[in-house]
């Protein structure tokens, strides 16, 4: 009983960050950090990364601290989930003009 070589017949490469292998049979990444549980593969023109690495590098929401994936609302250099960017006075989603105050962001109706 010997050691089997890795199966590379369905090999689609590896994560450019953690080097886990991508397999065509599952369309997922097999990552040692996830103990073999399949992960989504994220591609850009210059790299492929597994879900774990993508989430680590994604911008973090300035309100909730979770990774922002998809639509990003930016205030300066800070990223927000669109649903997290709300008025600190009335709680309404900020979509138009608003102001930054000492107590947070305020919509046009709540700002001083």
Automatic annotation (TrEMBL):
UniProt-listed PROSITE patterns: LIM_DOMAIN_1 (PS00478), LIM_DOMAIN_2 (PS50023)
Protein's recorded name: LIM zinc-binding domain-containing protein
Record field: transmembrane: none
Domain LIM zinc-binding: from-to ranges: 59-112
Keyword Metal-binding listed: yes
SMART domains: LIM
Pfam families according to UniProt: LIM
Alphabetized UniProt keyword annotations: LIM domain, Metal-binding, Repeat, Zinc
Gene Ontology MF terms in the entry: metal ion binding
Organism: Effrenium voratum
Keyword Metal-binding carried by entry: yes
InterPro entries: Znf_LIM (IPR001781)
């Amino acid at each position: 009983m010997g050691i089997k070589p890795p199966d590379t017949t369905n090999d689609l490469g590896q994560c450019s960050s953690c080097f886990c292998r991508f397999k065509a049979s599952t369309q997922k990444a097999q990552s040692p950090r996830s103990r073999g549980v399949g992960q989504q593969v994220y591609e850009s023109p210059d790299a492929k990364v597994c879900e774990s690495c993508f989430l680590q590098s994604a911008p973090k929401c300035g309100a909730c601290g979770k990774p922002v994936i998809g639509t990003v609302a930016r205030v300066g250099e800070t990223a927000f989930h669109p649903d997290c960017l709300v008025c600190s006075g009335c709680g309404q989603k900020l979509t138009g003009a608003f102001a930054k105050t000492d107590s947070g962001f305020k919509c046009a109706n709540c700002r001083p």
